[in-house]
Design goal:
mainly beta, elongated, two-stranded antiparallel sheet, about 80 residues
């Protein structure tokens, strides 16, 4: 960057590197570890690419048996875990 006034321009400032931030990649190795009685336990590995910032949690999208029977496009979003 360079400052300018009516007399002239300053010398250039030092460079800074600002990483670009984008959404993270998908989680890896998602598996069901246990299920039954209306619940499911999952395990996964964090994505290799975090998009330039630390991950702050995960959301899961799921369907209930009743919703699936009515409309296969009905997805519910979990609280952040």
């Amino acid at each position: 960057m360079q400052a300018v006034n009516t007399v002239g321009a300053s010398i250039l400032s030092d460079e800074i590197v600002v990483p670009a931030t984008v959404p993270p990649a998908a989680v890896q190795d998602l598996i069901v570890t246990e299920s039954g009685d209306g619940s499911v336990s999952l395990a996964w590995s964090a994505p290799k690419e975090t998009g330039g910032t630390a991950l702050s949690g995960y959301f899961f999208y799921y369907q209930t048996h009743e919703a699936l029977a009515l409309d296969s496009e009905t997805w519910l979003k979990s609280d952040k875990v």
